[in-house]
Amino acid sequence: MSGRLDAGKLYAALDAERLANGLSWRQLAADAGVSTSLVSRMGNGHRPDLDGFIALVQWLGMPAETFMIWPEGGRPRRKLSLEAQLAPLLRAQEELAEEDRRHLIDMVNMTVRHFRARKTKGG
């Protein structure tokens, strides 16, 4: 089984935060930038769409992984490549122009490929 979203856990976290802040579901939806019908559907056991999920976890200020059900109860065993780890960090650098971010990502990818090629050649 592959990982999936625990929509019930997300809804419970939203409800707890809503109650702690004295908000109605309508206010929560407006603050989070989602439709009231989205949170209503979630209350009936439906999962949010990806954009709604992102908006809600950002509103909560919690990592998206918090609401994941991992295969066989564990986290993925596969180690992320260096490129996959660095790309989001480089993309998050708002002071850089998009073209410059893309250039840095390309340079990192090229450098890592170079190191791997050297390693497989025994050098």
Overview of the molecule:
By secondary structure, the protein is mainly alpha-helical. The protein has 2 domains: 4-73, lambda repressor-like DNA-binding domains (434 Repressor (Amino-terminal Domain), Orthogonal Bundle); 82-120. Helix content is 60%, strand content 3%. It is built from 6 helices and 2 strands; from the N terminus they run βααααβαα. The protein has helices at residues 7-20, 25-32, 36-43, 50-60, 82-91, 98-120; strands spanning 4-5, 68-69. A two-stranded antiparallel sheet has the order 1-2.
Provide the fold topology.
Elements: E1 4-5, H1 7-20, H2 25-32, H3 36-43, H4 50-60, E2 68-69, H5 82-91, H6 98-120
Helix pairs in contact: 2-3, 5-6
CATH-defined architecture of the largest domain? Orthogonal Bundle
Shape: elongated
Average of per-residue pLDDT values: 87
- Structural class call reads mainly alpha
Order of helices and strands: EHHHHEHH
Determine the N-to-C terminus distance.
40 Å
CATH superfamily of the largest domain: lambda repressor-like DNA-binding domains
CATH topology of the largest domain: 434 Repressor (Amino-terminal Domain)
Helix content: 55-70%
CATH class of the largest domain: Mainly Alpha
The total strand number stands at 2
Report Rg. 20 Å
Cross-sheet strand order for the largest sheet: 1-2
- Count of separate DSSP helical elements: 6
Q: Any idea how many domains? A: 2
> What are the low-pLDDT stretches, counting only 5+ consecutive residues below 50?
none
Largest sheet: 2 strands, antiparallel
Estimated share of beta-strand residues: under 5%
Domain HTH cro/C1-type: 14-67
InterPro entries: Cro/C1-type_HTH, Lambda_DNA-bd_dom_sf
Protein name: Helix-turn-helix domain-containing protein
Pfam family, one: HTH_3
